[in-house]
Amino acid sequence: MAEMGAGDFEPIERSSVAEQVAKKLLDLVRTKNLKPGDQLPPERELAAAMQVSRPSVREALRGLQILGVLKVRQGGGIFVSSLEASDLLGPLQLLITLNEDNVNALYESRKLIDGGIGRMAAERITAEELARLKNLLVLQRGLLDDPIGFRVSDVEFHRRIAEATENPFLVRVSTSLYILGMEYRRIAAETPGVLGQSFRDHEQILAALEARDADAAEAAMVRHMTNVHQSTVDAMDIKT
């Protein structure tokens, strides 16, 4: 058996007190002891309860705010955020900027995920959910000259289809990928013809869902992602 010396081991890094406080708070959120909208005790009380210094608590809270887990409300008080993807992906969006190298990877992922969502939704969607999607398309028809309004309804359209899968993991993943592409979708939405194409894509997706045709729903969603991919690339060219 070979002998091992001190040089064979990497040094073990001790986490700071602030990191330990942050991990404890994250555990409370993960186990739902702290829920979205809950207000945290004052810094002084947290420090006493955890038997750490107030500066350590302050550093932990600041870090969790940067991550989007906690939010400071006007008038005082620190609260657990909604924990929606838009809150948690905010910091990530500052680090991941779409460019020629990764935009293709993003939409390759969306074709795979959203295509699968379309297939699963066709098998599980309820009559009530189909009725809501129909109402959304009626609304979208009147928003073809309103890029902001259309984008809001677009988020809702894709969210409702994802939720029809009854799979919370797919909902979170698809929403996260959607948000990461929003920077250039704002530009694309103002490009003539783009909203009209998206609306036609939505009509085809809904028709496939109504027919409970899983193959057609997957294909319609992939076509939609292909069109969105192309208009996003065009929007990136406009910006650059």
Largest sheet: 2 strands, antiparallel
How many extended strands?
2
* Shape estimate: elongated
Low-confidence stretches: none
User: Termini, distance in Å?
Assistant: 61 Å
Q: Give the ordered list of helices and strands.
A: HHHEEHHHHHHHHH
- Please state how the strands of the largest beta sheet are arranged side by side: 1-2
Number of helices: 12
Strand proportion: under 5%
Amount of helix = 55-70%
Global Rg: 23 Å
Overall pLDDT level = 84
Instruction: Give the structural class.
Output: mainly alpha
Structural account:
The chain has 240 residues and is mostly helical. The protein has twelve helices and two strands; from the N terminus they run αααββααααααααα. It has helices at 17-30, 43-50, 54-66, 85-88, 90-95, 103-124, 127-141, 147-163, 168-180, 182-189, 194-210, 214-239, and strands at residues 70-72, 78-80. A two-stranded antiparallel ribbon has the order 1-2. Strand 1 and strand 2 form a beta hairpin. Helix 6 (103-124) runs parallel beside helix 11. The longest helix has 26 residues, at 214-239.
Brief rundown of the structure:
The protein is mainly α. 68% of the residues lie in helices and 2% in strands.
Write the SSE topology.
Layout lengths: L16 H14 L12 H8 L3 H13 L3 E3 L5 E3 L4 H4 L1 H6 L7 H22 L2 H15 L5 H17 L4 H13 L1 H8 L4 H17 L3 H26 L1
Antiparallel strand pairs: 1-2
Descriptors:
240 residues, mainly alpha, two-stranded antiparallel ribbon, 2 strands, 68% helix, elongated
